[in-house]
Design goal:
368 residues; 7-stranded parallel sheet; 6-stranded parallel sheet; alpha/beta
Length: 368
């Protein structure tokens, strides 16, 4: 089986990272995969470093004739059995290319994000009619797809994003190495969040909660892991300035880290304060690492975290409630240990990338 995977994005976040993970998983299962992406984008650079076969186009948009022709050439010459894209916007390039070739090969779409626009006009009906199967990464996304896209319920299937639970394994991580690097003492608790610097990820609430808790407890340290994506440097600087204004001397801005399992293992409490989330792969990774968490009570989070079992949920955008929920875990080591155990078990059962990849391959085989 030969697959053309697509992610025509210039950004670098969960969707782009998971695209590369999915490609690698298919390759591990002896499926030939090549990637279509934007030339010199971050995903292009990272895919090249991984040795993935790459095809690039220079322009992308809702209708770009040159990119459509280039994509049609890639599809024709590649003799692919199917195409799978991680971004619905890619349909504007891929569907016209397939129509140009009069190709009937299956087209799969993974919906990673909710849409706030109803797409039931004639043009979108044409695009989505060409899609063979849509994978929705959470129940919230599945509902959103059915509400906003011109598709029937039988075309949409729930399929969470997965994690390599053998890599995200607390028994393999070096907790002490990162805690030493961050200068966290044995009697101190490290509370962290992991997200790119983007409005809506909840950095403000995290900073405000950190200030509230730091005024009450002297054994706490905080860390924010992540970098600014394209055009988001101003927001990142705003958050760092807020920490200075709050006089938080116990917070570390760690930037991008490739040793995510080690960083998560160093944390005593993981915070996921996103205002709106389709799924939240970082939260699923924290569960796999057995890190107790405090999460916003958003729909996409509810597919991952279980209130009172793996996590405590707080009212979205409410920094006071966030601080109170973190404090519950700060004061209760036994509860942290219980959450840790249940988090790992939940990740193994529901988010193991190998199990989810098998499901995808079985769907491929049934429709190719």
């Amino acid at each position: 089986m030969k697959v053309l995977y697509s992610c025509l994005s210039k950004s670098w976040g969960g969707m782009e990272m998971f695209t590369l993970t999915a490609v690698q998983q298919l390759l591990k299962n002896n499926i030939s995969v090549e990637l279509l992406c934007i030339n010199e984008s971050r995903i292009h650079i990272e895919a090249n470093n991984l040795g993935i076969i790459i095809h690039t186009i220079n322009n992308v948009g809702y209708f770009h004739p040159i990119s459509i022709l280039s994509t049609a050439s890639v599809i024709k010459n590649g003799k692919f059995d199917l195409i799978h894209t991680q971004a619905s916007k890619d349909l504007w390039i891929i569907v016209p290319a397939l129509n140009l070739l009069n190709s009937k090969i299956p087209l799969f779409l993974t919906k990673q994000l909710n849409s706030f626009i109803v797409k039931k006009d004639v043009i979108h009906k044409t695009l989505y009619n060409r899609v063979t199967k849509i994978f929705a990464i959470s129940n919230a996304v599945k509902k959103n797809v059915l509400d906003t896209c011109p598709v029937s319920v039988d075309k949409v299937e729930l399929l969470h994003n997965g994690i390599d639970v053998s890599r995200f394994n607390p028994e393999k991580a070096n907790r002490k190495k990162v805690r030493d690097e961050f200068e966290v003492g044995e009697d101190e608790l490290l509370i962290g969040m992991m997200a790119r610097f983007s409005p809506g990820k909840g950095h403000e609430e995290f900073i405000e909660a950190a200030k509230i808790l730091s005024d009450k407890y002297k054994n706490l340290k905080f860390v924010i892991v992540g970098e600014a994506s394209r055009g988001e440097d101003e927001y990142a600087n705003k958050i760092k300035k807020l920490a200075i204004e709050k006089e938080l001397i116990n917070i570390n801005f760690a930037g991008f880290r490739s040793d995510t399992p080690n960083v998560l293992s160093a944390m005593d409490i993981f915070v996921f304060p996103s205002h709106s989330e389709a799924f939240g792969i970082a939260l699923a990774e924290a569960l796999a690492m057995g890190v107790p968490s405090v999460c916003s009570d958003e729909e996409g989070v509810l597919d991952i975290a279980i209130d009172g079992e793996t996590s405590l949920l707080f009212k979205t955008k409410n920094s006071l409630d966030l601080a109170e929920k973190i404090e519950v875990l700060v004061k209760n080591k036994e509860l942290r240990n219980s959450f840790s155990e249940h988090s790992r078990l939940r990740a193994l059962k529901f988010f193991d990338i190998n199990i989810l990849t098998d499901k995808v391959i079985n769907v491929y085989k049934s429709l190719v």
